[in-house]
Amino acid sequence: MSDTVFSKILSGEIPIDFLHEDAMCVAFNDISPQAPTHILVIPRHAYRNVAEASEKDPALVGHLMAVCSKLARKHRLENGFRIVTNQGDEGGQSVDHLHFHLLGGRAMQWPPG
Ligand code: AMP
Prior knowledge:
This protein is of the alpha+beta class.
């Protein structure tokens, strides 16, 4: 597993409360929230980004999306929410371990920055 902050969270080296966990993924609050609800959903396997995971395990990518939707229901985001994944330098990715951002609780802007 690559040595990122998320691998440290998964190993327990960085203690954190999980909002969801199952055999394939975990979810927790983002340390720097960009909306009233800002949850990260990350796979246990350290795929670097969505392109790599989509090629090697597309079912996992579907599962992560389903977990985002389940968390949106649980956090009562019935007025809407946004799911984002950043890839690469131009995509704004800062942690090289696939993650989906679930954002909600405020009106989102478009286009994104
Ligand atoms: P990205 O920039 O798309 O790669 O997203 C990485 C996200 O990880 C950012 O929103 C960070 O705020 C978040 N993050 C970094 N370190 C931690 C941490 N220790 N706990 C929770 N979220 C973190």
